[in-house]
Amino acid sequence: MQSDIDVRKWVIDHLVAIAPEIDPAMVDPEVSFRDQFEFDSVDFLNFVLAIEDELGRRIPEVEYPKLSTLEGCVAWLTPVVNKLPVAS
Amino acid sequence: MLCETLGESRGETAARSISAWERLVRRPTPGNESRQSSIALGGGSINIAWQAVDRHAETSHRTHIALRWLGRSGMARLISYSGLRDLTNQFANVLVGLDIGKGDRVAVLTGRIPELYVAALGTMKNRSVFCPLFSNFGPEPIRTRLELGDARVLVTTDRLYLRKIAPLRALLPRLEYVLIVGEDGPAAEIPGTLDLAHLMAAASDRFTIPPTDPEDMAVLHFTSGTTGRPKGAIHVHGAVAAHHASARHALDLTPGDVFWCTADPGWVTGTSYGIIGPLTIGATLVVDQEEFDAERWLHILEEEQVTVWYTAPTAIRMLMRMDPARFRSLDTTALRYIASVGEPLEPAAVHWGEAAFGQPIHDTWWQTETGAIMIANGPGAVVKPGSFGRPLPGVEAAIVHRCRDGGVALETTPDTPGELALRAGWPSMFRGYLAEPGRYNACFRDGWYLTGDLARRDADGDYWFIGRADDVIKSAGHLISPGEVEAVLREHPAVADAAVVGLPDPLLLQMVKAFIVLKEDRSESESVRRDILGHARRRLGAAVAPREITFKADLPKTRSGKLMRRLLKARELGIPEGDRSSLIDDGA
User: Which domain does B552 fall in, by range?
Assistant: First the structure.
């Protein structure tokens, strides 16, 4: 994964892969995924696991609540993504 | 294998326990009215809400907290037994004002908010029937259940109404009243609905529970079969004897306990033990509005000083992912009993419980149809990790085989797989599937209720779960009907045929997987796959919809056209396929 990616778009891609019924244009960045779509705890875990896979690192459970909104994901993931080595 | 009754040494215990049940539910005979008066309404009546709430509100227990509600945003609400009595009286009076009476179904579709508990118990006070609907269901399962349940009233929130009910309303002509709770403050004004808070404020908090026959319908719980049509399991007021006895004997509950049942009342566990059983004991219920969140859950166990915790394997497996060090810093000294339900708890989870909480997790077994816990690793039992224990006092269980003559043969050799059966007649046994006597009668043979679960019993008398005898999927503790999911998939314009199976999953026990045959003019692509998945999730909700979809050229069927889900599953897992002689075409 390249460090210069658009983290917001990347997060939305992962959301939509799990819940294709989500309209990316309609995502309210401040409201938790659970409160705006049919996104249950299993969906959320699958979402986090998919992100972990791509980051190649584990995300501790204590951090999960920070990933519950789009804004939260962008804020938490941007510095993590920026620390990744640039793909050659 | 012999067709004979089991020579169990449990006979005496069973007899003692049944007589205890009888004392609770028996109609009074001349001379024993006084013995009844302390436990029942009088006149032979037994009403669940009276047993759960009013009985305590008439004693010094009235100030004890019945419900400790933890809101999503950090808000909390405490409701005492007398407070709960008044609120449920008001709700019963709201129903009376709408001319909703005995036997009328009151469906409730909300998250875990205080109004849900008030509506459930207030409905039962009025002798109307509480019909819980899981709020994560999509519109299709909701519509089917409201229709089959013939609901006259629906209690829901403004947000859920607009999202899930409003588009269906025209299809539900028999639904007369929709009572709305505001999710964020006062309810939004919505045409065709009534504001519950407004009705409650105008209703008296005094209500006399009318005489209630123990056989009067109290709860209608929908459960899934193999076909698309869900079954409405009827439960009666007399079932409370089993709710009470099992809360005491399987969950070790006492009046001083702080009890947290993590199940949603949309499922039977969340009603029998998320509402009724612990309240009849006089315990304090902890209710968390939020969905699963590992840190939040540990915080609740610690902060609320939960003493007895009833949860599910999927949640336990999610907690098992956490850093073990987290549990060393956790103060759960108050926690003295942990139980689990929904699907078999694997040995690793039992061992993890011992490491994380210093005590075993007690697996329990029961179903929507049984109404209450039937088999469990009870208090004091030596837990054999992976086993769900022994029948509770008064419950007679057996491993049986269905015979060609319509009867059953009892399996007496230990560790031999067969179908788990229960001797019919326990107080919380379902009394029917609404309007489907044929399906109900098919559950019984030779006086045994056949559970549809395959199990074995070891030489000590402990039971071990093997799997389902039918194609019903067990996922995250919920039963999911493959037929119901397939019917929705077939509605998609690109889909010619669909088959749905449960594949083994480390977190969910089984994961719902769909195999799709596309129409001839459609070709496989990621966008079609996502479109079908999105359609299924929109219609069914995340908990029921497939988590995975794969395309197939065709599906294995019998000569008569019946879908062979087991064969599909066997192929997917690379296990022997068994008898294929009746196959018409090979979908491999």
Answer: 473-585
**The predicted structure's pLDDT at residue B287:** 98
Q: Over the stretch B464-520, which tens digit does the pLDDT of each residue have?
A: 999 889 999 999 888 999 998 999 999 999 999 999 999 999 899 999 999 999 999
pLDDT in tens, A10-48: 999 999 999 999 999 999 999 999 888 889 989 999 999
Chain A nearest C-alpha distance from B572 (Å): 21
ipTM for the assembly: 0.91
- Average pLDDT, stretch B336-345? 93
* 520-539 of B, contacting A, C-beta below 8 A: 530-531, 533-535, 537-538
List chain A residues with CB under 8 Å of B291. Answer: 34, 40-41
pLDDT score recorded for residue B34: 37
Residues of A in contact with B543 (CB under 8 A): 40, 42
CB contact under 8 A, B542 and A42: yes
Task: For residue range B218-232, list pLDDT tens digits in order.
Answer: 999 999 988 778 999
Dump the DSSP string for B170-238: GG-TT--EEEEE-SSSSPPP-TT-EEHHHHHHHS-S--PPPP--TTSEEEEEEE--SSSS-EEEEEEGG
Residue B281 falls inside a structural domain = no
Phi, psi of B358 (to 5 degrees): 70, 20
Chain B window 325-344: which residues touch A at a Cβ cutoff of 8 Å? 326
> What's the total number of domains in chain B?
1
CATH number, domain of B537, equals 3.30.300.30
Domain assignment present for residue B89? The answer is: no
Range with the lowest mean pLDDT among B193-207, B337-351, B383-397, B572-586? B572-586
Q: Is residue B32 predicted with pLDDT exceeding 70?
A: no
Task: Identify whether B434 is part of a domain.
Answer: no
Q: What is the CA radius of gyration of chain A?
A: 12
How are beta strands B509-518 and B548-551 bridged, if at all?
Answer: parallel
The CATH number of A7-82 is 1.10.1200.10
Q: Residue B128 and residue B153: Cα distance in Å, rounded? A: 10
> Nearest CA to CA, how far is A38 from chain B (Å)?
6
Stated pTM of the model: 0.87
- Between CA B166 and CA B552 the distance in angstroms is 36
Pairing, β B258-261 against β B284-288: parallel
Mutate to test the interface with B, among A15, A18, A21, A22 (most CBs of B within 10 A): A21
Question: Confidence class of residue A86 from pLDDT cuts 50, 70 and 90?
Answer: low
C-alpha R_g of chain B: 24
Q: Do B547 and A60 touch (CB under 8 A)?
A: no
For tokens 């004991």, the residue is B281
Select from B138, B292, B314 the Cβ nearest to the Cβ of A38. B138
Residue B503: the pLDDT is 95
Chain B residues with CB-CB distance to A19 below 8 A: 534, 537, 542
Chain A residues with at least one Cβ partner in B under 8 Å = 16-17, 19-22, 34, 38-43, 45-46, 60-62, 64-65
